[in-house]
Amino acid sequence: MTLTKQLRTTGYLALIICLITVLHSCKKSGLENNNNGNNNGGNNGGTDTTVITPPNEPPLATTIGFYADDWKPKTFTPPAYTATAKPTSTADAVVTADMSNIITKVSKYLFGNNSNPFMTQMVTEPVLLDEIRKLSPNVIRFPGGNISSVYFWNEAPNAPPADAPSKLLDANGNSMDPGYWYGKNTADWTLSVDNYYSMLQQTNSTGIITINYSYARYSNAANPVAAAAHLAADWVRYDKGRTKFWEVGNESNGVWQAGYEIDVSQNHDGQPQLITGALYGQHFKVFADSMRAAAAETGATIKIGAQLLDAAPQSWQTPTDQTWNQGVLTAAADAPDFYIVHDYYTPYNTNSKAADILSTATAVTQNIITYYQAQLTQYGVATKPLALTEWNIFATGSKQMVSHVAGMHAAITLCELIKNKFGEASRWDLANGWSNGDDQGMFNNGDEPNAPKWLPRPAYYHMAFMQKYFGDRMVSASVTGSGDINAYASSWSSGQSAIVIANTGTGDKTVSVTIKNFKPGTNYYWYTLTGGSDNGEFSRKLYINGAGPTGDSGGPADFGNIKAYQAAVQGGITITAPARSISFLVVDNQK
Fold it and tell me: Any residues with CB less than 8 A from the CB of 412 and at least 6 apart, and which?
C-alpha cells in the first residue's frame, strides 16, 4: 500500500471514529439534559451509568419519638391504569425531588380521626365501618372533645358518682345543668365504651383515650384529685393494655370547659375558682402516677399526654391562657410522655376564602412546631413527642367544611405534619351535624339533605389517597416556576418514588417532575382529585380522574377501583395539575 493510500485510509478511519464518538456524546448529552442527570427518561436497554447517592437515614426526631416504634416499610403495588397522553405545553412549574435526602420516616398515627359519643353505636353501622376500614385512620380518639370533661366511662345513664355535683358553672359563673355522659349507655344514638373497643377492633385501629380531668376540679369529694385520678386508673385497668395513648383532659384552659371555673364553696381541697396551667400540671402528676400504676398491674405500658397551647396567647385571651404553657411545663416537669395541642387553622366562625384556607395548611403547621419547640426551650423541658389530637378548619358560611377545598386542606396539612415531624394527629371528626354545611364531620351523620347516611365528604378521599399513595419516608422536594404549586415527595421501601402535587391556584398548570438519585422504571401513575362547578369555589363534590358522585355531594362510588392515569417515563414525567387539585403520583423504579 502506498503512503498516500495509507494516509487516506487512516484519515477515513479517524473520521469514522470521530463521528461515532460525537454521535454517542450527543445522545448521552441529550438524555442528561432531559433528565438533569437523573435518568428520568429511562435506560433504553443500554448501560446505565447513573450515579446514585445512597439515601441518608436521619435520626428520628424526638417530636415523633415512640409514635414510630411500630413503623413498618410499605410496598407499592401498581394499580390498574389507563394510558394517558402527556401534556405538550411548556411546564409552568418544575418539581425536583431527591430520593437520597430523607426528611423523616412517616408516623402512621398522623392519619387519625376522632369518634364521639353521639354518632350511634358504630358497630351497628356496617356501611360506616366499611368506609372507616378503607380510610384506615390507624388511630381513633374517644370520647372527645368537650364531652370527655363530663364523661363517666363506667357509669350507667343518669347514675353519676355521688360526689359529682348536680350543677356546674358556665363561663360566666352561672349555674347550669352538667349534662353528664355515661360509658354504659347502650342506646342506639350513642357510643358505649365497649362498642368503642369493638369498633377499633373491627376497623383495625388503635385508640387514644381522653380521660375526665375536669372531675378533679368540680368533684365534691374530700380529695377530688384523688377521686378523679382513681376513676382514670380504673379505666386503664379495664382497658388491659388495649390502648397505648392516653390524654389527661381536653382543652382544660378553655372558658367553655367544665371545670374551668368551680364553686369554691363546694370544693374541699382549697382549689382556686379558676384553673391555671400550674394547677393542671400539679394534678397531671397525680393522674400519671395512678394511671401508670394501674397499667403495671395489667402488664401494660402506656403513654400519657399533657395539654399545651399551640400558639402564643393574644392580648384578649384569659389570664389562664397567658401563663398556661409556663405553668404546665414547670409544674408537670418530666411527668408527661408526650404533649397535646389542638388547632382549627382558620379564624373562628369566619367566611374564609379558599386561598386563605389553603394557605393555613403550611403556615399554621409550621408555626405550631416552632412555638412548641421554643416553649420547651424557654422553660427548660426536654423535647417529647407532639400530638395534634384535634384539627380541622373553622371557616363557616359557604359550606367550606364539607367541600373539596377542605379535602385539599386536609391533604396538604397531612404533608406538612409529616414534614414538620409531628408524632400523631387526629382530625375532628368522623361525624358531627349538618348545620347548613358548617359540619366538620367526615361522614354525613344522616341529617344532610338529599344525601345517604354515612356518605363520605371530600376530605375522606383526600385522606384515603394520602394513606394509599404516600410512601413510608418523606424525602426533600422543591418547586420552581409557580407559587401555586406545593409538592411533597416520598419513597417506598419497595423502591418507588411518589410525589403529592397540590395546585392551590385558580388556573391549570403543567408540571414536570425531576427525581434525583433515583433509577426510574418504565411507567408512572397518578390520580388527580378535583372539585365540581357547584357552590362557587367550595364544591361539595369530589372527582377522581374525572369520575364523580351521582348526587349533590360526596365522591365516586367504589373509588378503589378507579383506574390510574399512566404514561411512560421515557421522555420525561409531566402531568396537568388542574386548578384547585391534588395529584398523587407514583413512579416505578428500575427492577
Answer: 358, 361, 362, 486, 502, 504, 582
